[in-house]
What does this fold into?
Amino acid sequence: MKHTCGIFAKRVCAAIIACAVVINVFVVQVNPVTAATAPGTQITNNASATYKDAGGNTYSTTSNTVTTIVQNAATISETAGGGSDYAPGQLVTDTFLLTNAGNASGNLQVSGTSNLTSPADAALGGTDAGSLTLGNGASTCTTPAGSESSACKYALTVGSTTSYFTALTGSDTSALDFYLNQSGNVVAAGSAVTVTVYYTIASSAGTGAPPTVTATSTLYAQIAYAAAGSAAAETSAAQNAAETNYVIADARIDQYKSQSQVTSSPPAGENIGDITYTVSGHNGGSEAVKDLQSVKALIGGAWPTGGGNGGVLLSDKIPQFSSAPLALSNISGSNARVSLTANTAYGFGSSAKAYIVYSTSSSGASWAVASGTPATGTTAWTIPTSAAVYYLGVLIVGGSCSSTSGFELCTDSNSTTNGNSNVASFPAVQYSFTVAQPTGTGSANANSITNVSDALGGDNQSTEHILGPGISGGTADSTSASVLTTGGEGINYTSTLTAGASNNVQIQSLATYGTLTGPYDASGTNQGGDATGSYDGVVSNDNNGDFTAVPFGQSGDGIINTSTTLGTPATTVKTSASQTLCVAHTLYNNGNKNDQDSILANVPTAYSIPTTSSGASVTGWTVGIYSNGACSTALGGATDGSSTSTATNVSINSGATLQYYVKYVVPSNTAYFTRFDAVITATSNGDGTKQNSTHDELYSSFIALTTLANVTATNCPSGTSPSLPATSSGGAQVCPGGTIVYSIDYRNLVMGLSSTNASFAQAITHLNGLTVTDDGTLSTTSQSTTPNWATFTTGLQSAPADSDSNSVARASGDASLFTYWTNLPASGGGSTTFSAGGTKFTDAVGGTSSFQLAPKGYFQSGISGNPTLPVSEPANLDWQGTISFTLSVK
It folds into this structure.
């Protein structure tokens, strides 16, 4: 059924002169051809007769008089308008004719319910009742303070005068019912008044062909007659009428977006991982899409010649990753290629022209037209690859529909739904562009790239409104582009499917898995996982050879170095008790996708220092993997094992680090001066070929002292038999008066290349924590394995010297602090002032500075928790030194 008063005709049919509110007493008078008898009228009757008697005499007689009183016959009739077609967002005007069909003047009462003793607003209903709102009629309403809303909801037309009201009921003259019930405002018998109900249909209303979606208003009315003479006051029965309108679609741009990704054999100009978006647009409404002035303001200086006063824009905000738009791909020469199709068979406007436009402004403040020729059919357009494109789209201008200019997308018999693939079956316009996949942290996580295409066109209401995603319904078109660029709406709408916006497509980069594990990094950055090293100083210096050096041992075990080879200590002393170590590590996901890893930890292999080969397996050790620094909470289901421990399905996001801990239980009776090498390997669940190892270098004591004696002058007589000096297992030979130079080598035993970037934070002495003591008074016998040089020499002849690893004397602020004793045996307090004949000394290495004895490769370390140091060795951080002093034999 097609209604006689369509969208545009309805505006004319419903137009009511917008005059000021007129509140005047009215009496509607009519002069009907046959007027009804007024109430209170007395209708009387009697009968009379004449008769003659038998004598011919004439007589007359009259009966009694009877009286009938005409009563109030309160009757009302109500009719409603025939209904019309409306589009979402439009104002509806329903008219009701209320006729006094009775026999007297009366006051009307109106309501939205049949129970007029509890009046309410007109009832709104229909299949789309939820999208209807009373009001927004003529703008001449005034509201007394404290009364109802100022929106005009009703109009009363009496003759040629129309008055407006903000409510149906209430206690003041802004309410229609209150006004009608004033004593002087009566409607004469046979007369009628017109009540208009105003309401609006929300922009989000459903639409359909009649009678699928309806909007209905219902008004109830009755009339009351006052008492007239002996005629009692009467009120008519309530009557009602309803006007049903049909909600149809105004102009509506439906869009559908599809995507594809190159996974192999890329076409010319594209690369593996490139993503191509194809956007289709079609007018799914019942009216043509009108062009917008605001679109012309947006395009600005790039507006094409002959573009008219406005245009329709289908735009796409290029998907961004890490706050930057993805680069256009599909490259030919120095240009990116974009495809454009215009199809008049599916509603592309007659004489319209379509252009590919783009913006290199992050706010869309300026635009340019791509290189190409607007034409019907499919055309190729290019954009310089030097341009960082933030927005790309199709501008349509200069069209007409049914010979009416200013319309770019015409109505089409093919039905489409926004966000549905049926749009791609009937595209009035379609464009495709390709972007490079993003790279970096999280780029392969599910749906890390999202994209929505936006459409901007005008409706067909008397005041043209902007139809665009996120833009409030009823926003009038203007010569300003501000509403089109506001965040979250217009060209910047990037959320879910809504009117004017396409379906949201989601995709991600092709996955590249990666895992790295290494020393603990307190900063939480990737340096620990990405560390490089050579755990034994021989293997390749890479991120499979990085390591964490950890010392262990008991202070009371009294370790004695029995070797005279520098850097190769030996001892028969073993640990007296078991010990638990909890060593921290960093796991780093350097892939572009969230992943799960497995971690395998092994018990160590034992090596004599500094041997780098021929390691020996150990027994009695256990190893486990934990999530906390106390090694009390297992990670990934790991359990302690005598050979290995495995943590599985350890979740770690792309670009993230995770701290985990490996626990070793070291058994008692473990040899000192041994390096224990344990390997920990992390493997990606996503790609089992991606794995990385780190090492724990566990040192049973990490500082060794080696004392050497050099006889610089024997003072032995010549010609004796046997001749002297001679050597024996007891050491160099010397005679009284001879000179002995002792050197004490102190060094950190931790290995590694000088370029190692590993963790030594535990295998380093405490600040000012290294003191070397040589006491010649510990024995006074002639044969002793403990120092007895104070007894058999004249004591220190000169102050001892402390040189660093470069054989340069420690000096200035890093000079070692010596303390001396001169008595035998040495006791009591010493002196920092040297005097000849000293019998004991101590050397606080590095003096009062912040000296630490560190591993040799420490100085390149960049791991958080280790000091930031220059490449060259600083004086207060050294790995080795030598103390030397001279004695003369008595």
